[in-house]
Amino acid sequence: MPELPEVEITRLSFASRIQGARTTGVRVGKPLRWPIGCDPQHLLSQSVGEVVRRGKYLWLPLESGGLLLHLGMSGSLSFAANVGEPGRHDHFDLSTTKGTLRLTDPRRFGAVVWSPSMHSGPAAKLLCGLGLEPFDAEFDGAYLKSALRSRSGPIKQALLSGAIVVGAGNIYACEALFEAGIDPRTRSSKLSLARCERLAAAVRRTLARALDLGGSTLRDFRDAHGIAGEFQLHAQVYGREHEPCARCSAPIRRIVQGQRASYFCGRCQRR
DNA sequence: AAGTGGACCTGCTAGC
DNA sequence: TGCTAGCAGGTCCACT
Predict the structure, then answer these.
(1) How far does CA A193 lie from the centroid of its chain?
(2) CA A218 to chain centroid
(3) Hey, which end of chain A has fewer CB within 10 Å, N or C?
(4) Which nucleotide lies at the shortest CA–C1' distance from A72?
(5) Strand partners, A252
(6) Residue A28 has pLDDT above 90, yes or no
């Protein structure tokens, strides 16, 4: 579900409200992707620091370490003073003096993992292979060109891997490639510097636009106030197989790459 | 090292 | 109306 814009919108919707609160209770429901990795008692009576994002992960700092959160495909976080009884898909609650942070995740691909810090233990292991943040000044055409040099596979899969640049998932990778006029099947190492520059700019613009629009809500996504996004209404290619391309009217195509759907315009997007 | 396919889990929808 | 196959925003891991 949640790509970088959705994760960042979620963070913005509760980080300032939970900061400085003190933890008062923990409820662990059905198993998520990994075990939490600590005795839940260990999380009690600690003050909460500033929530930060790295890629699609959120780091929630506590005094004796912190929690690395991931929303998987169908996860969302809510934060409210009165949360009520947990529903069937509510698998983690962290109660604090300012409200309860609750992870709702029907498919349970999400995760809540304790780590002594962001830069050690399980968190470090999960974060260490990640590429640049898309809004980092270092992320530009020259960086992309260099990072893609050793990659023979399709550019779409290189973007999705997160090893070069983080944050673009299936929707935004498709949209960014459309904006840059690049066929998703193009071999990564074949992209010219000029096209790498266009692609880096397109990734940033696509993610920034999604942030402006509150992210994409296909079905599950809500921010921590329960508000849906509307980028999906503005998508040019994602989920639009057979519809006419907004730029040239050719029908949008759908193919499968690495077991994921790719949508693109066969006329506007070149190899 | 980089590419590929399978795995995890539930819910919804299109088609018969 | 009811069943089934196929599909869904992610990403780790084992294997080549």
Answers:
(1) 27
(2) 14
(3) C
(4) C10
(5) A265
(6) yes
CATH of the domain at A167: 1.10.8.50
Among A84, A100, A13, which residue's Cα sits nearest to residue A48? Answer: A100
Q: Are A253 and A184 in contact (CB under 8 A)?
A: no
Classify strands A111-115 and A99-104 as parallel, antiparallel or unpaired.
Answer: unpaired
**Residue A260 appears among annotated catalytic residues:** yes
Question: Are residues A107 and A209 part of one domain?
Answer: no
pLDDT at A135 over 70: yes
State how many domains chain A has.
Answer: 2
Contact at 8 Å (CB) between A66 and A49? Answer: yes
| Separation in Å: C2 C1' and A1 CA | 30
What pLDDT digit, counting tens, does each position of A236-253 carry? 999 999 999 999 999 999
Q: Supply the range of the domain harboring residue A58.
A: 4-127
